[in-house]
């Protein structure tokens, strides 16, 4: 019964959780505040424009999330149907594992294992297809989140950017993070495998799964990682601002490698480069980790 359990467990892990779009707060019309801003000597038009841009982005984000939620719901239904289809074939085979006929049990077990491998591959392929379908949505959401059209900080009343600069003499820009040679080597190794087919449990002999790719890539850089994705939270946890090439992006059932310039390399089908993200098929995001500490 082990093959049956492994398939059901994999389907449960790969099935995306429902996406419930958030309820956004209403953005007030700030035009009515312009006379007051002018009276106080504040620059009010910038705040009004930022509110307008925020409202526009809010509408677009809602549209994107509604579309993504519909796509995810359809995929959840497909995974349910895939599980039912698998069980309808696997249960009769499992019932015939105990047989007085010599060789019958071994034959049925081999058939059951082959069936399990087939459905595991179909499930992973469907999960990869969903990830690729949602990738443009994730990219647009990231673009909106990083947009400079609605800055996080607005000028204080009566101040200009020159005034603010004059109040902070000697403040220099934050220097770039030091080069991580091992991380660069790991990225180079991962990049050399772009286009390699996805293989469940693969560690480089004909294909890779997600943790097999990161483990192999870091091994080329002289660092050994644990085998399973959720166990690759090794080294030092880093923030998104600290990310450097080679850092690992870890979920409870998937792992990718940060390649720099807002990109990651991961074992999809095939090994591919995608925009940086922290969501993956409803899995719990565990964080960013630098294996070299």
UniProtKB/TrEMBL annotation:
Give the transmembrane ranges: none
One example of a Gene Ontology biological process annotation: proteolysis
Task: Provide the NlpC/P60 domain boundaries.
Answer: 180-293
A Pfam family assignment = NLPC_P60
Q: Does the keyword Membrane apply?
A: no
Arranged from A to Z, the UniProt key words for this protein are: Hydrolase, Protease, Thiol protease
Question: Which residues does UniProt call coiled coil?
Answer: none
The entry lists its GO molecular-function terms as:
cysteine-type peptidase activity
Record-linked PANTHER family: NLP_P60 DOMAIN-CONTAINING PROTEIN-RELATED, PEPTIDOGLYCAN DL-ENDOPEPTIDASE CWLO
- Similarity comment text for this entry: Belongs to the peptidase C40 family.
Under which name does UniProt file this protein?
A: NlpC/P60 domain-containing protein
- Organism of provenance: Corynebacterium poyangense
